[in-house]
Amino acid sequence: MNDLAVNGTSPIRARRTKAEIELLEETLLDIVEEIQPATVRQVFYQAVSRGLIPKTEAAYKSIVCRLLARLRRGGQLPYRWIADNTRWMRKPTTYKGMEQMLADSVALYRRDLWADQDAYVEVWLEKDALAGVIYPVTGQWDVPLMVTRGYPSLTFVASAAEAMSYEERPVFICYLGDHDPSGVDIPRDLQAKLREMAPEIDLSFEVIAVTPEQIDNMGPPTRPTKKGDSRSASFFGESVEVDAIPPHRLLALVNECIVKHLDVERYNNLQRIESIERQTLAQFVAWWSS
Asked: Could you tell me if 48 and 143 lie in one domain?
């Protein structure tokens, strides 16, 4: 256990020396570097799992949030290592000229990976803050990432159901969300609405995190269940946020859920065709620019 940990219910003393703070900052940097991009909440749970700080909201705000902010402002921690998917800039894509547009087209060109596959896959995520963490995997496999932000609105679900209704292939949804009274109810509510709005689709829905089996096997940090949640009466045990699942395991779960629906032979053939087409496009750009 880290030298910062002491006996008792609170691993960190109320008053820490300068040396202890510096050691804690170094450890937080190591955690972020290992799992980046990471949300602040993920870093908090990793610090709790390593016995560095107590599992309290006060420790999250006054220790993890404060120190990570200071490290970023001080230049020790790159801003891009902390994921924040809640703030976006909206601007049309523009170019300096045709040459830049064509060059970007070569770099960005991708074939529709799922066009010749026998399945259609989407990943749905309860937590918006984790979208930046999950996207590298969904982006790699050309799979839509749908963020619900808790219970999704009817408009959001209706739009998704309409898009799915054009699919003649089986539709597979991989879902990630909290294990708490509302978190376990969201998949039920979501499935019911999708089946009601698009009854013709062949829909399979799999909750890949957080599951009771993962809680038993991984032992992630828990938090007290919110008694103010109207669904808490039928929920037993403590709650586990999806952020508490180790990041490498979270990404592996998403990757596994996607790949098992992929025809590898067709995928490899598509990759060969895409490479040839990108070379052809590059040759055209070189000819046009000469």
From this structure: no
Number of residues in the chain: 290
CATH number for the domain harbouring residue 181? 3.40.1360.10
Model confidence at 6, pLDDT cuts 50, 70, 90, reads very low
150-179 CB burial, b ≥16 within 10 A, e <16: eebeeebbbebbeebeeeeeebbbbbbbbb
Retrieve residue 23's tokens: 């050691």
- Which region holds residue 241: left if phi is over 0, alpha if psi is between -120 and 50, else beta? beta
In a shared domain, residues 151 and 245:
yes
d(CA 36, CA 80): 8
What is the pLDDT at residue 142?
97
Question: In which domain, by residue range, is 256 found?
Answer: 118-262
What does DSSP assign to residue 37? S
Tokens standing for 128?
Answer: 């918006």
The answer on 131 and 69 residing in a single domain is no
Q: Identify the residue whose tokens are 């879902």.
A: 175
pTM for the full model?
Answer: 0.81
The pair of structure tokens assigned to 119 is: 């399945």
Domain count, the chain: 2
- Give the SS3 label for residue 246: coil
DSSP string, 107-166: HH----TTTTSS-EEEEEES-GGGHHHHHHHHHHTT--EEE-SSSPPHHHHHHHHHHHHT
